[in-house]
Amino acid sequence: MVNRSKPWWWKPLWISVILSAIALGVVGYILWHVPLERLAGGLALTLFCISISYYIRIKPSMRVNRVLYILLGISPIGFSLWILIALSGIGKFLATLGPCGILASMLLLPIPYIIGVFIGDWIGRKRNYRLPLSPFS
């Protein structure tokens, strides 16, 4: 990976993202009366996701990018394939076969996600595991 200098707005961007997440938490507590434990959990999860996105952009690596492409395959691609299987009626047909059919339909559920993993990895290999719009690619 080529190491280029960061844009001037890089540091203010991350500071403003963190401050806006905290400000929305305070607004949620004061105006919408969100329970404090739910607010703390949501804010912790938000800050965790912000730190992951910061890590992805600041320290890009082939391994992390490959994991992201695999997750890309699982999330939208695998889920879309699962929806297609669900809408096709295969599950209902298998459910009419009795207990063995129900077991077969349950075993059929992870297959679209596994296919999505392979498609995501294939897309990543085609792009040499470089993320789109990455300032360091």
Number of DSSP E strands: 0
Uncertain stretches of 5 or more adjacent residues: none
- Helix-strand pattern: HHHHHH
Q: Averaging pLDDT over every residue, what do you get?
A: 87
Give the count of structural domains. Answer: 2
Question: Biggest sheet, open or closed, and with what strands and sense?
Answer: none
With helices defined by DSSP (H or I, 4 residues minimum), what is the helix count? 6
End-to-end distance: 6 Å
**Class computed from helices, strands and strand pairing:** mainly alpha
What percent of residues are in strands? under 5%
Helix content: over 70%
* Morphology: flat
Q: How many whole angstroms does the radius of gyration measure?
A: 21 Å
Name the features.
single chain; 137 residues; 6 helices
Give a verbal description of the structure:
By secondary structure, the protein is mainly α. The chain folds into 2 domains: 1-59, no CATH class; 62-137, no CATH class. It is 75% helix and 0% strand. α1 runs antiparallel to α2 (36-58) and α3 (62-88) packs across α6.
List the helices and strands and how they pair.
Elements: H1 10-30, H2 36-58, H3 62-88, H4 90-95, H5 99-108, H6 111-126
Helix pairs in contact: 1-2, 3-6
Summarize it:
This protein is 75% helix and 0% strand. With 137 residues, the chain is mainly α.
